[in-house]
Amino acid sequence: MAALTLRSGLLPWMQKIGPTARTLSVSATASQKTAPPAWKLGRLNHVAIAVPDLEKATSLYRDILGARVSDAVPLPEHGVYTVFVELGNTKLELLHPLGEKSPIAGFLQKNKAGGMHHICIEVDNITDAMAELKEKKIRVLSEEPRIGAHGKPVVFLHPKDCDGVLVELEQA
User: Fold this and answer.
1) pLDDT per residue over 96-130, tens digit each?
2) CA distance 3 to 52
3) What residues pair up with 41 in beta bridges, in sequence order?
4) Is the pLDDT of residue 166 over 50?
5) E-only strand ranges, the chain
6) Whole-number pLDDT of residue 17
7) pLDDT tens for residues 4-59?
8) Contact yes or no for 138/155 (Cβ under 8 A)
9) d(C-alpha 128, C-alpha 152), whole Å
10) Cα-based distances in Å from 101 to 76, 136, 141, 164
């Protein structure tokens, strides 16, 4: 079969199958006989970035990029200092180790320059979300929610069960 190019019909072919492919995907999802969850996934609350130098990272977002940033707040129960960077539709959370047993210290040992650590998504019922996710074989990294940086209950989902991404769920 000859390779398709934009000129020979790839674009018209893609336009032709595009809606059909989406319809099939929606139909397949709609035909699955699963009960709706007892909880709802909400908005992206923040993307967390582990940083080796909290002052330097804060300065980048505040002084160079012009964002509003919070003061650094120690969270000893999580082993981190946090700084929140306000964006129009979400936040960035800058994470820096607090103490030698900090999970962020371990992350930074493997990633010297820092990098994305996790995403945080709001849920309307964290207890129901935990129970249902456990039933679906998604590993929750703690038995009970802990109070997070926003003063709300949070839990983390194992990255191996979430396509390589550490996911934090936060009670909305």
Assistant:
1) 999 888 999 999 999 999 999 999 999 999 999 99
2) 48
3) 123
4) yes
5) 41-50, 68-69, 73-75, 80-86, 91-97, 115-123, 146-147, 153-157, 167-171
6) 47
7) 444 445 444 445 545 544 444 444 444 456 677 789 999 999 999 999 999 999 99
8) no
9) 15
10) 10, 31, 16, 23
Task: Tell me which residue of 113, 121, 98 sits closest to 60, measured CA to CA.
Answer: 113
How far apart CA 47 and CA 167 sit, in angstroms, is: 10
* Residue 24, C-beta contacts closer than 8 angstroms, at least 6 positions apart: none
Distance separating alpha carbons of residues 91 and 116, to the nearest angstrom: 13
The predicted model scores a pTM of 0.78
Question: What are the helix (H) ranges across the chain?
Answer: 10-31, 54-59, 103-110, 126-135
pLDDT at 135: 95
Radius of gyration of the chain (CA): 21
